[in-house]
Specification:
By secondary structure, the protein is α/β, with parallel strands linked by helices. About 30% of the residues lie in helices and about 25% in strands. The chain is built from 9 helices and 13 strands.
Length: about 300
């Protein structure tokens, strides 16, 4: 049976309020004048990943717990405006939200509202099973309660990817995601020894590919036991914000991987998409398209024919 969906995204739907600050850490003061202002918009990790895969032509379906509130309306509108299928499970606690403090250099500090979930939260098993059975691949965000869906996904036989973000290699919360996925992304920012953590993931779990992103230093790819350094791509415009860069990297990598591309080429695609994301202001959501992605890898300007 032909799959109806290329990528099922679980979790990570929410709303961010963007606050530009003079520097990070924020200097202690009674007040600061903020420019270009304070903006609230839909878009958290799962949203950004879904936007990325959809913009690259993959049929994408997003599943998460979403509240009947203003933030939920923003999330539903984001998906509707970008043509991304969304299954919203009612969340009495409300839609996930966060405040992102963004410095002049594009770095950010995220403050997540921990009241927007409960220990009893669950994604309905039959909903997960049905959507996964109709999908080629599932990307699982580490937001609660997506870990509970991992066994169901494994039963369906769908391949799984996840992003552990700034895992320190020790926090037990991340381990179910790290060990259940076939393809694991994480940031090297909090890892004292990225290679050791990457190899531990492959030794203990199912993954045969692990990617650790390292910002301007590029990324490290562990595929079939071989570690490769992938240089960072040149941003196509000035860097203004790093928000969503890791999600863009993962989305472009999965795009290449589902297309049968070698892992090293997938990582190059990810590097280009991540660099593009760093040029998009945090107040907006915009993902790289297939033409610009190809151009970033080949070094040609978009619209230039092969051999020109």
């Amino acid at each position: 049976m032909t799959a109806e969906t290329d990528v099922l995204v679980l979790g990570g739907a929410g709303v961010d309020t963007i606050v530009h600050v003079p520097e990070l850490p924020v200097p202690l003061a009674d007040s600061h004048m903020i420019r270009p202002g304070i903006v609230t918009r839909a878009g958290q990790s799962g949203d950004f990943f879904a936007l990325g895969t959809s913009a690259l032509g993959l049929r994408t379906h997003h599943l998460d717990l979403i509240g009947d509130d203003h933030e939920g309306d923003l999330v539903r509108a984001l998906h509707r405006d970008h043509g991304i299928a969304l299954t919203a499970v009612p969340q009495p606690c409300g839609t996930k939200r966060a405040v992102n403090l963004v410095g002049p250099d594009g770095r950010r500090l995220s403050l997540y509202d921990a009241t927007r979930w409960a220990e009893t939260d669950r994604l309905p098993e039959e909903t997960v099973r049905g959507l996964a059975a109709a999908s080629r691949h599932a990307h699982v965000v580490i937001t609660q309660p997506c870990d509970r869906a991992l066994p169901v996904l494994r039963e369906t036989g769908v391949t799984i990817s996840t992003d552990l973000h700034d895992w320190d290699g020790a926090n037990p919360y991340h381990e179910p995601f790290a060990l259940a996925a076939d393809l694991v992304f994480l940031s090297a920012a909090a890892l004292p020894d990225p290679e050791a953590t990457m190899r531990r993931i492959t030794a203990r779990g199912r993954a045969r590919i692990v990617v650790a992103t390292a910002g301007a230093e590029g990324a490290y790819l562990l595929a079939d036991g071989e570690l490769t350094h992938v240089p960072a791509a040149e941003p196509p415009a000035p860097v203004v914000d790093s928000n969503g860069a890791g999600d863009a990297f993962a989305a472009a990598f999965v795009h290449g991987w589902l297309g049968g591309e070698p892992a090293v080429h997938c990582a190059r695609l990810g590097a280009v998409a991540g660099a593009h994301a760093c040029t998009v202001p945090s107040t907006r959501v915009a993902a790289i398209g297939p033409e610009a992605l190809r151009a970033g890898v080949t070094g040609r300007a978009p619209g230039t024919a092969d051999g020109a």
